[in-house]
Design brief:
By secondary structure, the chain is an alpha/beta fold. The protein is built from 11 helices and 12 strands. It has 2 domains: 227 residues, Aspartate Aminotransferase, domain 2 (3-Layer(aba) Sandwich); 117 residues, Aspartate Aminotransferase, domain 1. It is 39% helix and 13% strand. Bound molecules: pyridoxal-5'-phosphate.
């Protein structure tokens, strides 16, 4: 369930849009949202875009990547799709069974002379091993593009997680921590790269409207940016609320032997998902079935492991294949009542 701010706060922005008649084309609210995100997350350069998938695509295009990109099979289809749509080949490396992120120890074995980049995902906002990944990338002279779709507002090593690697792509989709309905963007420490991404999102125009790049239409529009601006004001409340609800789930499910939680650094996590990892596929199916019979809709994020799907078939990644069969994301949203969490946990206890 997406976070919905008080409607009147959004309507106030809409009145301004109606007044000005400016709906799109890098309008004032998009620019304001970029500034507010930069301020709230303490990052230098931000480009807001139509969605997180296009953000990944423009990150790859902005860096002029060509060849193979090493990524994780435990992600949403958007990750390999964005790589493939930019003419690169996604190559999967297996994951760590505790953090659910790409296992840095498996990356080097996948590097060939065609490898141009690593595209790890901070799964459910758990930070990847950024130091080891950067060290591998530097040693091989390749780029790092983070799929940070889940990782808005996560601090890591004293700064925003989005400032690691060459560029990070975040999502502001309805299901994400801060949402615009649909939306996303890129963050980089390189001003030139974000300027290029801004040209790419607007058909390749520069500030004088000359066409200087092979662009597309990936612009965020004003009606979307307005929702982002309203929601961003609620960031601290949203973060605190999710953290509490996650904690309640953890306490209520403690001692259920056939379940475990993702391993993450508690101060560097935004609690936007509630994944539980079952000991076996049978337990997961039992728990899922019991919840569904009670009209509770958990999600099998991410299933199946992407290396077993037809467009990206690369079998033989046992950790991801197994985790994808056993992981279930439980309901976690801003106005989810505590009594519902207690009921969900009771159903899980009985079914497991
Ligand atoms: C890991 C991951 N990457 C990329 C995306 C794509 O983001 P968007 O839906 O904003 O295009 C998603 C969306 O859910 C995702 O979960």
């Amino acid at each position: 369930m997406p976070f919905r701010p008080p409607l009147k706060e959004y309507v106030a922005y809409l009145e301004g849009i109606w007044e000005s008649g400016i709906m799109t084309h890098n309008g004032p609210l998009v620019r304001r949202l970029e500034n507010e995100i930069a301020k709230a997350l303490k990052v230098r350069h931000v480009a807001c875009l139509a969605n997180g998938t296009l953000a990944l695509q423009l990150a790859i295009r902005g860096l002029r990547l060509k060849g193979e990109v090493i990524t994780t099979p435990f992600s949403y289809a958007a990750t390999p799709a964005a790589i493939a749509w930019e003419g690169c080949k996604p190559v999967f490396a297996d994951i760590d069974p505790e953090t659910l992120n790409i296992d840095p120890g498996r990356i080097e074995g996948k590097i060939t002379e065609r490898t141009c980049a690593i595209a790890p995902v901070h799964v459910f906002s758990c930070p990847c091993d950024t130091a080891r990944i950067q060290e591998i990338a530097d040693r091989h002279g390749i780029k790092v593009v983070y799929d940070a779709a889940h990782a808005f507002a996560v601090e890591w090593g004293g700064r925003s997680l989005l400032e690691y690697g060459d560029v990070s792509a975040f999502s502001l989709h309805a299901t994400k921590l801060i949402n615009c309905g649909e939306g996303g963007g890129c963050v980089s420490r390189e001003r030139g790269l974000i300027e290029r991404i801004k040209r790419l999102r607007f058909f390749g125009h520069d500030d004088e409207k000359r066409i200087v790049d092979e662009g597309t239409n990936a612009k965020m529009h004003e009606i979307t940016a307005a929702l982002g601006l309203v929601n961003l004001k609620w960031l601290d409340r949203v973060l605190g609320n999710r953290r509490e609800k996650y904690g309640l789930y953890q306490r209520r499910l403690a001692g259920v032997g056939c379940l475990r939680f993702q391993k993450f650094p508690p101060e560097s996590y935004n609690y936007s998902y509630m994944p539980v990892i079952c000991e076996t596929k049978e337990t997961m199916l039992r728990v899922e079935g019991a919840l569904r019979r009670n009209d509770i809709l958990p999600r099998r994020y991410f299933h199946p492991s992407l290396n077993l799907t037809k467009p990206y078939f690369q079998p033989g990644l046992p950790v991801s294949e197994s985790i994808a069969e056993r992981t279930l994301c439980l309901p976690l949203y801003d106005d989810l009542p505590e009594s519902d969490i207690e009921r969900i946990c009771d159903i899980i206890r009985k079914a497991s």
